[in-house]
Design a protein that fits this description.
Blueprint lengths: L9 E3 L5 H10 L2 E6 L13 H17 L1 E3 L27 H17 L4 E6 L6 H13 L6 E5 L1 H4 L12 H10 L17 H4 L11 H25 L6
Parallel strand pairs: 1-3, 2-3, 2-4, 4-5
Helix pairs in contact: 2-6, 2-8, 3-4, 6-8
The structure holds zinc ion.
């Protein structure tokens, strides 16, 4: 199928050859960088939830805003493994904050070197200070002369809390995942006789047993509307910041 010239051009960066990248870049010099984690999300959800979710949301956004979606980075600090009050020692890869800082800085510098006008970093994992470190590196980057503008955010900061509250392996995250990667969720592994808890089930937030792909689709649409507005604003701002 040939897309009409007015349709946004988008693609998955790692799957494209240079000519295809250049054709998309010429129309939409926007890079999407989904930032995930390999982190225990209960018995009912895949450990890559944060990266799968962020990647799925970036693809949905790129389809309307155009641009290139990078593969998710699965290196996170401050995962559930390190929470002393809890006992989930397995199925999380927990990296140091200094490693995270170097990796985000390296990605931003390299994407600026590729001359993207906007780099949209979407944090699927909002553990702290992991999330603040990424936002801080974005702020520092934007404080230096560059024709690239970085946006670093998460779906929880873009979608109304009435719709999606910050959560771990609960209704919001699980619904997103059921929408993007239904084979990565099994609600039958949640307890049927009690409400899931943080201590027993690694669930923090609204009851994930009510999750559905339909809600994930609704959340995704709300995210895309808010994120697209941010990108439009950043595109008008980026050229003014040139060296
Ligand atoms: Zn998560």
């Amino acid at each position: 199928m040939t897309l009409p010239p007015s349709a946004p051009a988008w693609g998955r960066y790692e799957r494209l050859m240079p000519a295809e990248i250049e054709a998309i870049f010429a129309r939409h010099p926007i890079a999407y960088l989904p930032w995930g984690a390999l982190e225990y999300h209960g018995r009912h959800a895949a450990i890559g939830l944060d990266g799968l979710k962020a990647h799925g949301l970036c693809v949905a956004l790129a389809k309307v805003a155009g641009g290139l979606v990078l593969p998710p980075v699965y290196v996170a600090a401050n995962t559930i493994k390190g929470v002393k009050a809890l006992s989930f020692p397995r199925h999380s890869l927990d990296f140091s904050e200094s490693t995270l800082r170097l990796l985000i800085r390296g990605h931003l510098d390299q994407l600026a070197d590729e001359q993207f006008r906007v780099v949209f970093v979407l944090c699927g994992h909002v553990g702290q200070p992991h999330y603040d470190i990424i936002k801080d590196e974005a702020r520092q980057f934007n404080g230096r002369p560059s024709s690239t503008h970085v946006l670093a955010t998460s779906e929880c900061d873009l979608v109304s809390p009435d719709m999606v509250k910050v959560n771990h392996a609960a209704l919001g995250e699980v619904s997103f995942l059921m929408h993007t990667d239904p084979d990565c969720v099994d609600l039958a592994r949640l307890p049927s006789d009690r409400v899931p808890t943080l201590e027993a089930d690694a669930v923090w937030g609204p009851d994930p047993r009510a999750s559905s792909a339909e809600q994930g689709r609704t959340f995704t649409a709300a995210f895309v509307t808010a994120a697209q507005a941010l990108i439009t604003r950043a595109l008008t701002r980026a050229p003014d910041r040139g060296p």
